[in-house]
């Protein structure tokens, strides 16, 4: 039984990207994993992905680009205000403006840049650079 499927998926993406592989199959999958991968795809960290179905609920086939230095989940899921983004950016990212933090807000998952522009707080989910 897996407790955190997002952590397992991002760890596998990180490991496969470091070894130079071009494709990974992620199973099990969820809406949160798909949305996090969609955000990473929009910012050119990973390539396209497609949802495939089988008897067990499906899996994702993700194409890797080799652009990830490190990615992972943020545990515990810290509550953050718009004024606190810089503090967590210093903690999880190597430099200001490098990489992104994914935040769960009441308007959905988005990067911390988008949440700051829209003046939204939320919970920290993952980081990638």
User: What is the first-to-last residue Cα distance?
Assistant: 29 Å
Report strand %. 25-35%
Structural class label: alpha+beta
What is the CATH level 1 assignment of the largest domain?
Alpha Beta
What proportion of the residues is helical, as a percent range?
25-40%
Q: How many beta-strand runs?
A: 8
For the residues shown, what is the average pLDDT? 94
Order of helical and strand elements: HEHEEEEHEEHE
Describe, in plain words, how this protein is organized in 3D.
Helices cover 32% and strands 30% of the residues. By secondary structure, the protein is an alpha+beta fold. The strands form two sheets. Strands 4, 5, 6, 7 and 8 form a five-stranded antiparallel β-sheet that branches. The chain is globular, with a radius of gyration of 14 Å. The relative contact order is 0.19. The mean pLDDT is 94.
Question: What is this structure's SSE topology?
Answer:
Layout lengths: L4 H15 L3 E4 L4 H12 L3 E7 L6 E6 L6 E3 L5 E2 L4 H8 L7 E6 L2 E4 H6 L4 E7 L1
Antiparallel strand pairs: 1-3, 2-3, 4-8, 5-8, 6-7, 6-8
């Amino acid at each position: 039984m897996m407790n955190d499927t997002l952590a397992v998926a991002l760890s596998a993406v990180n490991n496969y990207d470091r070894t130079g592989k071009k494709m990974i199959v992620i199973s099990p999958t969820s809406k949160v994993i798909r949305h996090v991968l969609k955000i990473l795809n929009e910012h050119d960290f990973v390539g396209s992905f497609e949802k495939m179905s089988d008897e067990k609920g499906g899996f994702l086939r993700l194409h890797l680009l080799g652009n990830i230095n490190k990615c992972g989940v943020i545990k515990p899921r810290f509550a953050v205000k718009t004024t606190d983004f810089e503090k967590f950016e210093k903690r999880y990212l190597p430099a200001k403006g490098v990489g992104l933090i994914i935040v769960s807000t009441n308007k959905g998952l988005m990067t911390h840049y988008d949440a700051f522009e829209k003046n939204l707080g939320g919970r920290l989910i993952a980081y990638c650079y």
